[in-house]
Amino acid sequence: MSRQIRIAGGGLSGLAAAVQLARQGFEVEVFDRHRGGGGRFAGGWQVLENGSRDLDALDELRAMGLEPDFATVPATRALFLDGFGGTHEVASAAPYAYFIRRGGPDGSMDSWLRSLALAAGVTLREGVPAPADAEVVATGPRQADGAARELVFASDLADTVAVLFDPTITPTGYAYLFCLGGHG
């Protein structure tokens, strides 16, 4: 078996695979069609799901030898809004998710994995098409599903997690506002 592995895709999956393979002694190249990491994300808050397994999501990363060193905010409360003006607050004792930053900026999950990959000796090829015969394909979607738009902004709004479910206003799914620590 070849000790050289080429990975198509420099997102979370491609970088995590690259780190694990490099730590096992493989010579790894990651091809990312974007420059600077983070792909389609602009540095805003995204959700790392934490409610469907017994093992905490951050502990799962630790179990893979990936010590989390990126911004995380445990999510234990949310406000759901319906199309009739109703509000429904939910809460949990343990985090049902972690808010994480996605995109290229420092403190994001993407930049953390990029730094782990580089420290493990992975070669990053940015703005370069991946070879058609790459051994690992982790390219993700070409664009967001539905009608997605991410706005990132500074705010003095109190920490807010609000999700709107209304097929009239959001016919392709839902809309949300995450504002945490002055970052929306």
Structure characterization notes:
- This protein has 3 helices and 11 strands.
- The longest helix has 12 residues, at 12-23.
- It has helices at 12-23, 57-63, 109-119; strands at residues 4-8, 27-32, 45-49, 72-75, 77-82, 87-91, 97-101, 123-126, 136-137, 160-165, 175-179.
- It folds into 2 domains: 1-40 and 109-140, 3-Layer(aba) Sandwich (Rossmann fold); 45-101 and 144-184, no CATH class.
- Strand 5 and strand 6 form a beta hairpin.
- Strands 8-2-1-9 form a 4-stranded parallel beta sheet, covered by helices on one side. A 4-stranded mixed beta sheet has the order 6-5-10-11, with no helix packed on it. It has a 3-stranded antiparallel beta sheet with strand order 3-7-4, with no helix packed on it.
- The protein starts with a strand and ends in a 5-residue tail after the last strand.
- It has 184 residues and is an alpha/beta fold.
- The chain is 16% helix and 29% strand.
- It is globular.
